[in-house]
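Worked problem 6 (solution included).
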Amino acid sequence: MDDLPVLKQRALFATIACWIVAVLAAGMVFGELAHLAGIVDLLAVELDPLSALVAMLYLAFLIAFLVSVVLVAMWIHRAHKRLQEAGHALNFTPGWAVGWYFIPIANLVQPYNAMKELWNLSHGEDEEFKNEGNGRLGLWWGMWLVGNIVSNISQRMVESESADWIQIGFVLGAIGAAGTLAAAVLLAGIIKQVTKVQESGVMSAQIFE
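Solution. The predicted structure is:
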């Protein structure tokens, strides 16, 4: 298909963004643990140089994460659109494959289902076919949920007035950042694999069945 170069370009940008998020998430794990160890104080009114550096890392992570959301969404849309143009009957349109990420409650399940459809049909298999890729997808989605849910809980605890809750909040923050790191690495691999099989033309194997 003549839009393959567009898919490959979007895959490249999305993959790079995922790896940047992963590296910065690793820095956040360090920041949370460093605060617990008393090396930095991220809650101080005036930050010392090391604490300020860690705070800047947090800001860099937020920016990189938002950019990665856009780039990954563009890749998902294009990859789904190629399936649609190849003649597959999709449960998820290209728009909704992205849109479900922004619908509360539904975004806990539907984005995973859309990605599973993208993975399986790209590999030339029925959407419900249980192949080796689904284990990777399940792990990615589990880490994504852990990263988001635990990080949100952590933020609320850190904002409390209880010193004990704040400390627990930083522990959860480290766990959430680690989940985000793992999810970013796994997603980079998924993007690479789906793009590779779409490039090889495997996804057209069952169009005329």
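Discussion: Residues 4-15+68-204 form one domain.
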